[in-house]
User: Which sequence fits this backbone?
């Protein structure tokens, strides 16, 4: 079973993403702050990270950069999820090393599709 | 001339009517020159006295000399008076000009300050709109997310009534999201930061994707969406998402303002250096007087019309900003009761 780490501070958003991914057979790890998320990524080395932008302590861009700079973590695909939809926000995310940027509110099916895609799983 | 300083001051104080003011000055000037004239006459009399004391000269010669001297002094007086008037007028005009320049620069400075404040206010408004839109999206993500989970029966079975309710919630939630996105686009267009990402794309595909968005709305009024595309057009180099957004906006307006059982026609035409896309309806049309305001933000038609059809009054202004952001043009042709044709161009660009 593949592990997915969700770093999200909005409780309901965390719950929704968790529900939909668990339903699709993934094992979920959660973190609600930037630093907690980064530590979790370093110790557990998940198969994929779902990352919010606005987070306490350390923002999503910084967490993304740190994960992508770590020798043991740089291979982990990162999907960023945020309400911010300005072109400059999206650009910052990709510059920080994000593999995909999805704006909230997101379509649940699309999210699952992207997760499978980045885990290299075949899609029906 | 400095003795007339007070008169010049009068011009400053009483404003912008130099000629009237100069005439007023003339009286004083004449008084001033009267004194000069008195000096000249006294000089002549003095000279005559000297001549009479000489007595050697014949009386006639003395008389002629007196007349010539008198005439000369009179001419001199006239000339000096006119010259002085011109000099004075010039001086007054210069003072006036200086005063005007000073006022203009003062007003320019004031206008610059006002302009700066206005731009600042506009920036604050745009920032507010953007932040507010993002803030609104956070709770909406929760609402739409749980609606999806519930409708997919991932939290348990639902009866038909509950499914119908959830569908309505989903539709309204998406409408709300659309409004928020429009607000965001408005703030972006005001800040001049509407992102345009151009790539090669099939225009017909863009049109069919846009019509899919409107189909449900059109079917409710039994309106047919017809596409008449120019066969010469295949793929275009443009921002597919933005073109789709423009089309969805124009199509939803066309459907909204059309009568039941009518047609809405989308046509494309290859024209020399651009592609023309038109959306034609046979709806209520736009009054001639309203046409020039139609693309302005927050402008809506007569209150009774907006009350009947609803809307925020920002859709068309966003459409215009979008078209202009990629270098196109938008126009409208409409007659009350006969319908409207909205046309926009897509410049042909090299891939």
Assistant:
């Amino acid at each position: 079973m593949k592990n997915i780490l969700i770093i999200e501070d909005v409780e309901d958003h965390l719950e929704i993403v968790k529900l939909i991914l668990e339903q699709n057979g993934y094992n979920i790890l959660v973190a609600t702050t930037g630093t907690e998320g980064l530590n979790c990524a370093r110790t557990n080395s998940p198969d994929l990270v779902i990352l919010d932008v606005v987070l306490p302590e350390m923002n999503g861009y910084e967490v993304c950069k740190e994960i992508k700079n770590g020798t043991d973590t740089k291979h982990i695909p990162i999907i960023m999820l945020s309400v911010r939809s300005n072109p400059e926000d999206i650009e910052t995310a990709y510059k920080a090393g994000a593999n995909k940027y999805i704006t909230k509110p997101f379509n649940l099916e699309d999210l699952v599709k992207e997760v499978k895609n980045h885990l290299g799983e075949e899609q029906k | 001339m400095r003795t007339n300083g007070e008169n010049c001051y009068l011009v400053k104080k009483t404003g912008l009517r130099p000629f009237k003011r100069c005439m007023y000055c003339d009286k004083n000037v004449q008084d001033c020159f009267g004194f000069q004239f008195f000096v000249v006459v006294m000089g002549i009399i003095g000279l005559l006295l000297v001549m009479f004391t000489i007595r050697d000269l014949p009386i006639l010669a003395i008389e002629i000399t007196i007349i010539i001297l008198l005439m000369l002094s009179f001419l001199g007086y006239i000339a000096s008076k006119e010259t002085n008037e011109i000099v004075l007028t010039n001086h007054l005009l210069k003072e006036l000009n200086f005063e005007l320049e000073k006022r203009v620069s003062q007003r320019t400075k004031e206008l610059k300050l006002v302009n700066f404040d206005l731009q600042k206010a506009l920036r604050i408004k745009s920032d507010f709109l953007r932040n507010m839109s993002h803030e609104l999206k956070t709770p909406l993500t929760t609402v739409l997310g749980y609606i999806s989970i519930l409708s997919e029966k991932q939290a348990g079975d639902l009866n038909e009534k509950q499914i119908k309710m959830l569908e309505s919630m989903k539709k309204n939630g998406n409408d709300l999201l659309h409004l928020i996105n429009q607000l965001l686009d408005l703030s972006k267009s005001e800040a001049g930061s509407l992102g345009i990402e151009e790539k090669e794309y099939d225009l017909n595909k863009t049109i069919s994707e846009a019509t899919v968005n409107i189909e449900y709305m059109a079917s409710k009024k039994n309106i047919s969406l017809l596409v008449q595309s120019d066969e010469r057009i295949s793929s275009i180099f443009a921002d597919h998402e933005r073109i789709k957004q423009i089309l969805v906006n124009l199509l939803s307006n066309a459907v909204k303002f059309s009568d039941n059982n009518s047609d809405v026609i989308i046509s494309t035409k290859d024209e020399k250096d651009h592609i023309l896309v038109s959306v034609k309806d046979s709806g209520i049309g736009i009054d001639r007087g309203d046409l020039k305001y139609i693309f302005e933000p927050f402008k809506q038609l007569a209150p009774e019309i907006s009350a009947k059809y609803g809307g925020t009054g920002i859709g068309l202004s966003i459409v215009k900003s979008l078209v202009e952001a990629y270098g196109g043009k938008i126009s409208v042709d409409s007659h009350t009761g006969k319908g409207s044709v909205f046309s926009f161009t897509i410049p042909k660009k090299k891939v």
Summary: The interface with chain A takes residues 130, 134, 137-138, 140-142, 144-146, 148-149, 152, 154, 173, 177, 181, 184, 188, 193, 195 of chain B (CB under 8 Å). The mean pLDDT of chain B is 81.
